[in-house]
């Protein structure tokens, strides 16, 4: 390549190259596409494992089983003895749905037999909570980022809900 000069190689004033055989076209920059943080589950990431859920001040630990889409619920402290199950039926970036059943051994759904649904950042509950039918027409805004310091929070009429990973 001795018969090609630097201008023919694209090396000229303002161009950068490590040697005469390497040329960089002026004005071209590599494109960096950041990962979309909303591309995976947002409200209940399966890799986070167990979650602490606080409803009306009562604490429950949600322990995943298998692939994490199902699990057990264990009442903690004042909620001790009130246990149950959960099943995640939808877990995507902007869409989440979970069926929760909590009660005592004699009445396994006496505390809750409900579905929590989130679309975007709007949450609603349907089903029965503490013997009363939830008003599924009302939505509430989800706030927080899901950490111990800033858990996800929803303020439903008469029932505050929050959750975060515990492991």
Provide a descriptive summary of the structure in words.
There is one protein chain. With 167 residues, the protein is mainly beta. The chain has a domain at 57-165. The protein is 2% helix and 43% strand. It has one helix at 6-9; strands spanning 51-55, 58-65, 70-76, 83-91, 95-103, 112-119, 122-129, 132-133, 140-143, 152-156, 159-165. A ten-stranded antiparallel barrel has the order 1-2-3-4-5-6-7-9-10-11. Strand 6 and strand 7 form a beta hairpin. The longest helix is centred in the N-terminal third of the chain and has 4 residues, at 6-9. It is elongated. Residues 31-36 have low confidence and may be disordered.
Summarize the entry for a quick read.
The protein is mainly β and 167 residues long.
Structural topology:
Layout: H1 6-9, E1 51-55, E2 58-65, E3 70-76, E4 83-91, E5 95-103, E6 112-119, E7 122-129, E8 132-133, E9 140-143, E10 152-156, E11 159-165
Antiparallel strand pairs: 1-2, 1-11, 2-3, 3-4, 4-5, 5-6, 6-7, 7-8, 7-9, 9-10, 10-11
């Amino acid at each position: 390549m001795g018969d090609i000069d630097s201008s023919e190689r694209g090396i000229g004033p303002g161009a950068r190259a490590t040697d005469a055989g390497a040329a960089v076209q002026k004005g071209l920059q590599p494109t960096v596409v950041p990962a979309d943080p909303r591309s995976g589950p947002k409200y209940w990431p399966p890799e986070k494992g167990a979650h602490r859920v606080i409803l009306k001040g009562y604490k429950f630990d949600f322990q995943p089983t298998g692939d994490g889409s199902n699990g057990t619920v264990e009442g903690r402290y004042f909620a001790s003895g009130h246990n149950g199950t959960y099943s995640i039926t939808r877990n995507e970036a902007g869409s989440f749905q979970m069926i929760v059943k909590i009660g005592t051994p004699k009445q396994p759904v006496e505390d809750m037999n409900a579905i929590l649904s989130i679309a975007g950042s709007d949450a609603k509950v349907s089903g029965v909570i503490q013997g009363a039918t939830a008003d599924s027409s009302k939505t509430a805004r989800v706030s927080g980022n899901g950490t111990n310091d800033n858990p996800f929070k929803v303020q439903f009429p008469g029932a505050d809900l929050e959750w975060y990973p515990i492991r």
